[in-house]
Amino acid sequence: MKKSRKFFILTIYLVAAVTMHSYAQKIYHEEYRPQFHFSPRAGWMNDPNGMIYFNKQYHLYYQYYPNSDVWGPMHWGHTTSKDLIHWQQQPIALYPDSLGYIFSGSIIADANNTSGFGKNGTVPLIAIFTHHNMAAEKAGDKNFQTQSIAYSLDEGFTWIKYDKNPVLKNPGIRDFRDPKVGWFEADKKWIMALATFDRVTFYSSADLKSWTKESDFGAGIGAHGGAWECPDLFPLEYDGHKIWVLLVSVNPGGPNGGSATQYFTGDFDGKNFISSQTDTRWLDYGTDNYAGVTFSNTGIQKTFIGWMSNWQYGKAVPTKGWRSAMTIPRNLGIVKMGNKFLVTSLPVKELNNIYNSQSIIENIPVTHYDLASKIGKFAGLAEINFTADKIETFSVTLSNDQGEKMVVGYDKAGDYYYADRSGSGRVEFEKDFGSFHYAPRLSGKPGLDITLIIDNTSLELFADGGLTVMTEIFFPAKPYTRLYIDSNTGLLVKKLEYHELKSTWP
Fold first, then answer.
1. Hey, is 332 helix, strand or coil?
2. Annotated catalytic, 47?
3. Which of 67, 124, 393, 457 could lock 412 by a disulfide, CB 3.0 to 4.6 Å apart?
């Protein structure tokens, strides 16, 4: 009898284990689910928030509605990683309250305990976010967005909201949002970059609780097709000097429609951001990189993640039960071309943690090159790097046996890169989804340097050392298994490296 009972219990445990494994397979292997970009188990996700590196761990928070796969009352979701590639979803960090929904913001490590929230030598993490009062907005009140703070004494896993919120009230600006805070060492003070309708307003504070307006930037400068959102101010090093960069997302008004992120370069003196820039510069010319910001607490290295979608169609994409993913993390750099400083963006090296196999092919004369046949198999997840001493017209085509195809390439006559998803699969859910997108070639060098990061439903192109970037999502009926490189002007690929990538999900 005892033996039978033990066998019964063991059977129950085995069935439960198999069921749990099957569930894990199901939730991260649905149709259109990315396999190495972060996406939530379920629910709606948009802007990345509160990104911080602390105690050898990356924390990514994000705009989240857990009860539906369409936008709703905003929470802060939370996920963590040791390597920026493998993510562990954590419990919800911040919930809506009587002051409103929890909109976008940032997190800093208050190492000197300027806020006074630290206890017994514990460094407090401080979240600064926008409270969005939906009832006040519906009533026609312009003051429905304010800035509030919360603190964590357990490295960002649980949060206590400040009992005197908000810490920055709205002076009567309809869009008053998305605080990004950093420490300005020269003046020993915190600086907040805040999106204020059609510009960025800078505030300063000694304690993260009381804020003083310093200056505005942006009136009549850059792209203004829609409201400015999600600013990020930080320095990058060039030739031993600091060049300050200001990221600003705009919706709509992107270079290929919908939402996108522009940047400005210049100097910041603790009060004013000063830029001589007169042109509009985009961090990503594709349609699927928005509201991105950098991790705090990483020193001079700045690592960026964006929302891999677009407000033009983000609510309509054909996923079920979950919605949206983040871009691959990218390291930002800066180069000088003539009198311009340009920001570069390249995938983090940690991608090599999921390399599964590698093929290296040299000296390829390209007309119609069947890369899939050369590598043995194209399974949809890949990093491809190729170079040429002389740039020529080329295209890279991903396709399946149903004739669906996603094409990216370079047109020498027009001197532009492009992405064509008109035949990529499902495009009917939004009238402009199947468009042809352009990106200027910014490099003046004669050679070619391309990196492609390919997931089940996304392609990220990094050209010329990350000077030109395009991020595109797509929704084929079946996974792409064919891979071709074509050139009608005779591209000679000097070296091609193909890395098959592994899924990061169980």
1. strand
2. yes
3. 393
